[in-house]
Design a protein that fits this description.
β1 and β2 form a beta hairpin. The longest helix is centred in the C-terminal third of the chain and has 18 residues. The chain has a three-stranded antiparallel beta sheet with strand order 2-1-3, with helices on one face. It contains nine helices and three strands. With about 210 residues, it is mainly alpha-helical.
Length: about 210
């Protein structure tokens, strides 16, 4: 699933920067609050939220080992178009690529131009406010969409202590809805079906 290092990476991505910006420096303090500066901070990591997509090439063995690949035969044909990008974003965040595929498949059926009645956009059906929160300014850009959606997923992993069911419920209904219902899956039929379907795809049930 998601490693601690990925949680920091997601927190870093939560600061939206102008497209013209270069590097900024960020770290989490002992209370888990994000500290950002244009000058190096003690223990901070430099990052560029607008780094471009680099087609996947040979990866270090240790890095590859943290990300499980998706067998082409287990995916719809449309998935092959976005699989390299999904694999890269999964590797960047330390997330299992199979989980991202399951979410993308349920959310948009791999349609990068999908738009929901609620205004969610792109491959991972990210709400514009959430996209902005995690550094995306064009959610129809597949790479920005995947990075923002995955960064949000990593944030949810931390918020709900790695509970996959609550993470998915919050991804669908919002973390506020989960919190208002006592950190349980909200009693919404759509959300419950969503959690069941994504979980089933991820675990190979469907």
């Amino acid at each position: 699933m998601v490693c601690l290092k990925a949680v920091l990476a997601a927190a870093l991505l939560a600061t939206a920067m102008p497209a013209a910006a270069s590097q900024v420096f960020a770290s989490l303090d002992r209370h888990g609050k994000l500290q950002v500066s244009d000058a190096p901070l003690a223990g901070a990591t430099a990052f560029d939220p607008h780094r471009p997509f680099v087609p996947a090439g040979p990866k270090p063995a240790a890095r590859v080992a943290t990300v499980k690949t998706v067998a082409p035969s287990a995916m719809p044909k449309a998935a092959s178009r976005w699989s390299p990008m999904i694999e890269q974003v999964a590797a960047e965040h330390g997330v299992d690529a199979r989980l991202l595929h399951a979410i993308v498949r349920v959310e948009s059926a791999y349609n990068h131009q999908a738009r929901s009645h609620a205004g969610a956009l792109g491959l991972m059906q990210v709400i514009p406010a959430t996209g902005k929160r995690f550094g995306a300014n064009d959610l129809f850009d597949p790479l920005q969409n995947l990075r923002a959606g995955t960064a949000y997923l990593v944030w949810l992993h931390r918020r709900f202590n790695g509970d996959l069911t609550l993470m998915l419920a919050a991804y669908n209904a919002g973390e506020g809805a989960v919190q208002r219902h006592g950190n349980r899956v909200p009693p919404f039929s759509e959300t419950r079906r969503y959690v069941e379907k994504v979980t089933g795809l991820y675990r190979g049930v469907h």
